[in-house]
Model the fold of this input.
Amino acid sequence: NPAQPQVRFIGKGVIVPDENRVILPFSAIALKAVDVEIIKVFNQNMNFFLQSNLYDGHYQLTHTARPVFMKKIDLQKEYPDLDLNHWHDFTLELGKMVKLEKGTVYRVRLKFKKSYTTLSCADEGPDSDYSTVNWDNPDTYYYEGEYPSGYEWKKRNDPCHISYYNGDRFEARNIINTSLGLMAKSGAGNHYIVSVNQVGCQLQGGFIQSAKPKTGFSLHRQKRFCTTEPHRKSFCPDSPGRTRQSLAKTQGRGCAIPQQFRRQWPTCADGSKRLHLR
Done:
């Protein structure tokens, strides 16, 4: 029997050490091409994103993010000597696709259509399509379990039918490009000990992992999430890579999408823009 089209990311984890090249490996079988979609959670919306998600989450992305890249990657053209009916490993160099910002979440999705497969039936009948997300409506529910037009549940495991090409077959991974890792431990009296360590370091001849304490840093607590000039308090380390502080609980507010990615959003009482207000 011919291999069924599949794609999967290699490895686990979210944090990618900050270096000149950010490489994301994946594997594919029975596919001549894949579509790469990159969704960016804007830096000013990170607090709001983390209210509803862990670092690898994707809940309510229409409130905090926007797609910034979509492109078809032709595997057959780039690797003409490979037998694509077997599993092979490939890489995506994200820095060539988007301008990566440190500390920002990017959700990378790999999708494919029936016409991208090596199957003999790839060009028979209608091709599969992707469902669309109304990013301009903040009340739109973001959902990755998408179904193509003409989906039939009984045909969902037949790769010669468009029903096979649904969101369950696609892969997604969040990445954060950073050279720092933070760990906070809570104690009595609402006190926290926060440590800052290097995630990795660049050495001549290669890149190695490291977890050395970071010196010369300051931490900022942001009291409000949606203001024209957020109020912040700075904390300085009391030992290399560590600080001890008492933090009061604060309530978050809605967040804004940059002007170039939005049309018209409601306004906060203080005049600042927001996407969603709880």
User: Anything to note?
Assistant: The radius of gyration is 22 Å.
